[in-house]
Amino acid sequence: MSQPNRVTLDIQGHIAHVRLNRPDKHNGLDMPMFRQLIQTARKIEKSRDIRCVILAGEGASFCAGLDFSAIAKQPSMAARLFLKWPWQKTNMAQEVAHCWRRLSVPVISVIHGNCFGGGMQLILASDIRIAHPDTRLSIMEIKWGLIPDMSGTIHLARLTREDIAKELTMTGRLFSASEGAEYGLISHVSSEPMAHAEALAAEICAKSPTAIAATKSLFDKTWQVGSWRALFWERWTQARLLGRKNQRIAMQNGLAKDKPAKPFLPRN
Q: What gap in Å lies between CA 37 and CA 122, rounded to an integer?
């Protein structure tokens, strides 16, 4: 039996539009959606033509979190969420969010409606988060006697203060997009979040894809490590960029005042 189409992928030029596609359930996460989110991220990673991802949700909400009723109907399948084999670094629950952080290209989340629990952890794993002013957010796992277990804790540590992270996680309270921006969890609040994301993605795609991927990798490696280790990764990353084809193209385009910009090559 074929799986329902829980996640859609639409590639427009160099931008991959990924949408959670369960609008009748406010894009609640069930097992097919877990699998398809991971499969979609892997498909994107294999493409050297994709330079940016926009992650959004169909219908009235981005994602209302885990669909407990659907998961409860498949207890044996649900157990796979927490199973980690020795050769894996993440279990399935962690991988469904963390796979977007590991992508070589930047991921922009477009958020509207409700963004609770697992949905919140999905956006925390993205690189940039753009929310509609009416968005409602919550780290809701405490309501079920749980903790954020979809890699949310490591991404919270990158984005906000420890006391804020503890308060939001321990209370599970609802907060607004503007509050999220104040806490460092939302990058931009916009009345037209998709248009904002598409304009930003186009701006990113106009730059060297090799340098963009290197920037994401460098920041992910160094943002919260000791200064000596960060300096090493900075030197190593720059050495891999200098003199490469896309770096030379960027130099030529930067020096050419009136000539048409030369297109960049796929990242290597």
A: 10
